[in-house]
């Protein structure tokens, strides 16, 4: 299954969720490919792959075979295609390319059969990179921070998903909304969850990821949370989320 993590709002937990959910699915025996499609390359750093070559950028340019851009991570069965800051230029370089929305889908088509899950991490925008992710994916996971402004961008994201569905990818589904950085002490966080569950019902994953400092420390060690601190509350939450993903099928 190809999943894109999307939300044009920055810092909502797209990368953290892609990495740690992917790590637990791999720990549970699934073969997982992480695709860093953000020029910030945070996902690459999070699994110790920043600076490894080739990246998804060379693949899109036709300068490297995709199989060569797949690198190992510290977790068994978890592999990664890293990104680079040069991917920023793709926004401009791709403007005149025919079929530019399909470049990632085309690249992944050669390798996706080798994996149970392909997770695409996208940047905080709704530009050509995120659209490529939405075109390549079967389903979208939307990480949402439990705060008031979380909802503001959601309708724009959903209308982008609709547009991509109409023009490029008719079978694209919303796989679910994932609450991140939940602070149970604030009343607002509870209200936001209630409100979103009221609107989206079963689309919302039941597992809520709490705010946990261990999750924010792990990337600087190049380790997913299952290796950095498996006993932390953040680790337990992502493990539970992985179980929920598996049980949803
Ligand atoms: N549950 C959590 N508890 C504490 N810190 C977290 C949690 N989830 C993510 N963070 C931290 O919050 C910051 C933003 O998270 P992350 O990078 O995953 O968001 P993002 O949506 O990918 O951001 P961007 O839009 O910039 O790509 C990071 O520093 C990350 O380590
Ligand atoms: Mg990110």
UniProtKB/TrEMBL annotation:
PANTHER family recorded: P-LOOP CONTAINING NUCLEOSIDE TRIPHOSPHATE HYDROLASE, PARA FAMILY PROTEIN CT_582
Signal peptide: none
Domain of life (superkingdom): Bacteria
Family annotation (Gene3D superfamilies): P-loop containing nucleotide triphosphate hydrolases
Residues annotated as domain AAA: 2-174
Name under which the protein is recorded: Cobyrinic acid ac-diamide synthase
Coiled coil: none
